[in-house]
Amino acid sequence: MSVIERIQAEVQGHPIVLFMKGTPQFPMCGFSSRAAQALKEAGAGRFHHVNVLEDPEIRASLPRFSNWPTFPQLFINGELIGGCDITLELHQSGELARMVADTQKA
Measuring CA to CA, which residue among 84, 14, 13, 92 is closest to residue 46? Predict the structure, then answer.
């Protein structure tokens, strides 16, 4: 399986996927930490994450896959939502909580 196929499988296999540096419990950068915290506060108690620091192939290929240059990257229902800034804006507006709730209805 190619790295692009692996990324596709992660994105399609989970309603919420956060590609981040570190883990939600032990984030390795402030942006990843804030994005994970926003997801938790929005009601995503448990969500799938991929630690890009542990997988150099994904770290190198994800920006080409998503056309988004930085980490973290949040995908909901197979769609790229964005990075830390967009995630925080959606959280502050209440939209992120709605998006999270929609994934739990399915």
Answer: 14
**Domains along the chain with CATH numbers:** 3-101 (3.40.30.10)
Residue 85, CB-side half-sphere exposure with 13 Å CA sphere: 2
pTM of this structure: 0.96
Q: Does residue 43 contact residue 101 with C-beta atoms inside 8 Å?
A: yes
pLDDT per residue over 14-57, tens digit each? 999 999 999 999 999 999 999 999 999 999 988 999 999 999 99
